Amino acid sequence: MLEAVKVSENVYWVGVNDRKLELFENLWPLPYGVAYNSYIIDDEKVTLIDTVEEGQLNQYMKEIKEIIGDNRGIDYLIVNHMEPDHSGLIEALVKEFPNIKLVGNKKTIEMMESFFGITNNTYEVKEGDVIDLGKHRLKFYTTPMVHWPESMVAYEETEKMLFSSDAFGSFGTLDGGIFDDEVELDFFEGEMRRYYSNIVGKYGGAVQRAFTKLKDLDIKRICPSHGPIWRSYPEKVLELYDKWSKYEGEEGVVIVYGTMYGNTAKIAESIGRAITQKGIKNVKIYDASKTHSSFIISDIWKYKGLIIGSSTYDATLFPPVESLISKLQNKGIKNKIVGIFGTYGWSGGSLKKLKEFVNSIDCQLAYKPLDIKHSPNESAINECIKLAEDLVNRLRK
Ligand SMILES: Cc1cc2nc3c(=O)[nH]c(=O)nc-3n(C[C@H](O)[C@H](O)[C@H](O)COP(=O)(O)O)c2cc1C
Fold it and tell me: What is the DSSP string of 289-341?
């Protein structure tokens, strides 16, 4: 039998890996799976922090029983977040441990009733309330809209651990390595950014407000609900979240295009080449039909420059580009330098929509919108080079 994973002397990780699920929220691809993390504090009051996804019942109960044994109960379940991948086993826990107290804020408790009809044994905590577990003390902070209205984090004062719920979480299963110093950090930084940009990204302002609220806490470990536990480099993820939630991009450009027959792709390639010749090394070119928007959005979050090109399809945008920009609008993308170009065959249409998009977001337009008929001729390519140069100049300002 594998040894239980200790986060510290009496705190255990009781997470499960999910390698079966194709799409997170039935929307975002999981090529590397996802882990649902839950934690036990084995103190005078035995406390569980969040549960896991509904389908993981057997494995999860087994892990809990291995730590607490068959004859002990659980005193508290801290419900930091009601999204089903964490609240999925609340009913099963209530059945198994009928005396368990369900700890949440006012909104959590309302949600528990509307999700499961649960009204008994709830324990409401307010901002800054503390629950004494014996050696450990949990203090609660609400973090509204990071990324649901009831979202909350629990700070353990004795060992200075932050149970951060979905904040600082990442996609990717925990393949043996559970802690940041046991895993490939670059991989998890990428999957954390994809999780942030896809799931939390719309709520940068709320993340910044949470930062202000938690800024005086001494945080030694961050225990999120997905991905590795940060015990060696907690400051690294705090820094990344701060940057991403301020929409601060690095020097680099994402070029994304929608094409049927390759003309729009050809233009994207020539812009990419011109940008690189101006000395920018981080240039990523994506075909919106091929790469899932989840990955494109993640790179858009990473870099400061963005160029979008679309052929005209039935008088409007090529559908995969339309879908991508609607997600970007919804996520409130801002603070980018954006170039746009359209291609068309007769009366056009894609560029008009791209202009509407740029006008709807809080971003700087590079050079001017370019409309190119069918295949790009020499003068069109020259205009594209000017777009590339202007974008690079703005990136470096
Ligand atoms: C299915 C289809 C629909 C199109 N619809 C329009 C249109 O409504 N208006 C227009 O001006 N051009 C239209 N075009 C022309 C393309 O936008 C134009 O040929 C463009 O250069 C194609 O770029 P691509 O080679 O990157 O696919 C259409 C082309 C196709 C194949």
Answer: TTS-HHHHHHHHHHEEEEEEEEEEETTEE-HHHHHHHHHHHHTT-EEEEEEEE
How many angstroms separate the CA atoms of 133 and 300, rounded?
44
How far apart (Å, rounded) are the C-alpha atoms in residues 212 and 58? 39
CA neighbours closer than 13 Å in the CB half-sphere of residue 219: 26
Let me know whether 241 and 348 are in one domain.
no
> Could you tell me which of 9, 45, 12, 47 has the C-alpha nearest to residue 134?
45
Determine the distance separating the centroid of ligand 1 and the alpha carbon of 343, expressed in angstroms: 7
What is the ipTM metric for this complex?
A: 0.99
Residues 334 and 235 both lie in one domain: no
Binding site membership of 348 for ligand 1 (Cβ less than 6 Å) = yes
Q: Which of 256, 259, 260 to mutate to test the pocket of ligand 1 (most atoms within 8 A of CB)?
A: 260
Residue 292 sits in a domain whose CATH number is 3.40.50.360
Instruction: State how many domains the chain has.
Output: 2
Q: Do 259 and 140 fall within a single domain? A: no
Tens-of-pLDDT digits for all 397 residues of the chain? 467 899 999 999 999 999 999 999 999 999 999 999 999 999 999 999 999 999 999 999 999 999 999 999 999 999 999 999 999 999 999 999 999 999 999 999 999 999 999 999 999 999 999 999 999 999 999 999 999 999 999 999 999 999 999 999 999 999 999 999 999 999 999 999 999 999 999 999 999 999 999 999 999 999 999 999 999 999 999 999 999 999 999 999 999 999 999 999 999 999 999 999 999 999 999 999 999 999 999 999 999 999 999 999 999 999 999 999 999 999 999 999 999 999 999 999 999 999 999 999 999 999 999 999 999 999 999 999 999 999 999 999 9
Task: Verify whether ligand 1 is closer than 6 Å to residue 23 (CB atom).
Answer: no
Alpha carbon nearest to ligand 1 atom 21, residue: 374
Q: From the CB of 55, is ligand 1 less than 6 Å away?
A: no
Q: Is 264 touching ligand 1 by the criterion CB < 6 Å?
A: yes
Residue nearest to atom 12 of ligand 1 (CA): 345
Domain with 319, as residue range(s), is 250-396
Q: Which ligand 1 atom minimizes the distance to the CA of 316?
A: 8
Same domain, 180 and 161: yes
Evaluate: CB of 98 within 6 angstroms of ligand 1: no
* Ligand 1 centroid to residue 345 C-alpha, Å: 5
Of 232, 162, 240, which Cα lies nearest the Cα of 196?
240
